[in-house]
Write the C-alpha cells for this entry.
Amino acid sequence: MEIFFPKDIILEDDFVLLRPLQAEDMEYLLPFSINEPNLWKYSLVRANGRENLIHYIDVALEAKANATEFPFIVFDKQSGKYAGSTRFYDINLPFKTLQLGYTWYGKDFQGTKLNKHCKYLLLEFVFEKLQMERVEFRADASNERSINAMKSIGCTVEGILRSNMHTLEGSRRDSIVLSILKNEWFESVKQNLQAKL
C-alpha cells in the first residue's frame, strides 16, 4: 500500500477553519507578532516581530515542501478573524506517527472553545483519515497553560525529557511528552472531546 500525506488539507466545522499556511498569511498573523510578543515565550522558534514572523513562516513552508511538517493557519468563524497557527510535524508515515504542536492563538482566542475544536478536527483527520497510530505532543515542562490544554483534550503524560533542548536564552529546558493513541481516540478521547465542544 502506498503511503502518502495529502498536499492540501482543509478542516472545518461551524466554529473554526484550518487551512494550509501560506507566505501571504503574514499579513493576518503580523498583528499578533507586533502586539502580543509573549505568545512565543516558551517557543524554540519565535514569531514575535515582523522579521521573526517571516522566518517562522519560511521555516514552516520549507518543512512542508520537505514533507516533514504541515502548517495551518486558524480562522475563527465566530469572530470572523484569524486566530493563530498550528501544525503537524515530525511526520513519520511508515511508523504511523506524528507530532501536533507549534500551536498558538491570540489572547482573545485563548480560553475559548477554539483550541478544542481545532484539536478535534486535527485528531479526527489523523486517526480516521490517515490511520495514524500515535500523536505526540511536547512542551516546555514549565509551560503550565499548554500542558493543561493538552491534558484537557485527553492526552496522557508519558514523562519528562530532562535537559533535552537549548532555549533561545542560552539555557536548557526540560520537555514534557504527552500522547494520544489510536485506540484511545476511539475508546474514549473522541467522545470526551466531543462533549466539550
